[in-house]
Design a protein that fits this description.
By secondary structure, this protein is of the alpha+beta class. It is built from 2 helices and 6 strands, in the order βββαββαβ.
């Protein structure tokens, strides 16, 4: 069966295996939560044109486009091209790019559900 997560209509139920990932951001003593590093960059959002993205994504979801080596992101098990479906209970299939960035910046621990190409139901 085809993995529905990668070309789905925003707001519709996704039937795919989602991978839970918990990422604890990194920061030194006295560093404000908003400055803590998560170690990854995202692309996408409902306000972006996914047909123009260099990665060839098939929908307006939020995708991990880049990761810093030995960062909180790599330690969490996150991978480049993972699609973030949910973050701390917040639906990430329906967000603008800026909202997603702001939301990721706001919290020190990211509890994510991601979809990964090639990983389908068992």
């Amino acid at each position: 069966t085809m993995n529905q997560a990668f070309s789905h209509e925003p707001g519709t139920a996704i039937s795919c295996l989602s991978i839970p990932i918990t990422l604890h951001k990194e920061g030194g003593p006295g560093i404000p939560e908003t400055e803590m590093k998560c170690g990854f960059k995202i692309g996408g959002g409902i306000d972006q044109d996914y047909k123009k993205c260099p990665q060839g994504y098939e929908d307006n979801g939020i995708y991990v486009t880049d990761m810093a080596p030995n960062s909180a992101a790599t330690k969490s098990g996150l991978r480049v091209h993972d699609k973030i479906l949910q973050l701390n209970g917040y639906d990430f299939t329906m967000v603008t790019h800026k909202k997603a960035v702001d939301y990721i910046k706001k919290v020190p621990v990211l509890n994510m559900l991601v979809a990964r190409k090639g990983v389908t139901q068992t």
